[in-house]
Specification:
Oligomer: single chain
Helix content: 10-25%
Radius of gyration: 18 Å
Number of helices: 5
Largest sheet: 7 strands, antiparallel
Number of domains: 2
CATH topology of the largest domain: Elongation Factor Tu (Ef-tu), domain 3
Distance between the termini: 16 Å
CATH architecture of the largest domain: Beta Barrel
Order of helices and strands: EEEEEHEEEHEEEEHEHH
Length: 220
């Protein structure tokens, strides 16, 4: 059974380190490379060329950086623009940032690859006390991996699903006051998109079932 196509190259926790500001988003002078330049003092503290940084949950590679200006550049491939919500950003937008984990990193969220599975649309944002309930609609292909009390990364933020509404093709989650101040999700409006990455464990389970691995075990 081959699952090499799901090999993990970089790993994140879904705990946002910093909200960075986009200084540039678009094609370079050649018109061939679509780049993003982000202002971000914290994640640049130990950056190197080729490092992986999750930008709104999308694993991107640092191609240039300027420590004095606290800026780094990443390139966006056409497939990345098609699959994520990054194309909707503009100069001045803020984004969630997280550096790839090191072996010594404390695991505070869940295993996040930075491989966005698709996008969802915010359909409601309702406060309850100092907390905020958010409901997101997504495709059936993604929703099948989302379960109540399970993990999901929304714009790179590790969150716990509260409920799944299959008929509406929606799920919801709640942000406490502290989290609202540290991530970009509350800054968005109803109708805007968010990047989604489902729990990798669900994808491995589906792969095992579809390959007939479980049936082969039973037949032994």
């Amino acid at each position: 059974m081959a699952i090499s196509s799901m090999a993990i190259k970089s790993l994140f926790t879904g705990i946002v380190e910093e909200m960075g500001e986009i200084r540039h988003l678009g094609f370079d002078e050649s018109g061939q490379s679509f780049d993003m330049i982000i202002h971000s003092p914290t994640v640049l503290q130990d950056v190197n060329l080729g490092d992986s940084i999750a930008v709104n949950g999308t694993c991107l590679t640092v191609t240039e950086f300027d420590s004095q200006r606290s800026e780094f550049k990443v390139g966006l491939a056409p497939e990345t623009l098609r699959k994520t919500s990054l194309i909707e950003l503009e100069k001045g937008s803020v984004v969630n940032l997280e550096r790839a984990v090191k072996p010594s990193t404390r695991m505070g969220g869940h295993f996040v690859q930075g491989h966005v599975d698709g996008t969802g649309e915010i359909v409601s944002m309702e406060p309850e006390g100092d907390s905020l309930w958010i409901k997101v609609k997504t495709s059936p292909e993604i929703l099948k991996f989302i379960v109540p009390k399970g993990f999901i990364a929304v714009d790179g933020t590790s969150l716990t699903v509260v409920n799944v509404f299959d008929e509406e093709e929606c799920f919801n989650f709640m942000l406490v006051e502290y989290t609202q101040q540290k991530v970009v999700i509350p800054l968005k409006k109803t109708g805007q998109k968010v990047n989604l990455e489902v729990d990798i464990l669900g994808k491995y389970v589906e792969r095992l079932l579809s390959s007939g691995f479980v049936d082969s075990i039973k037949s032994r």
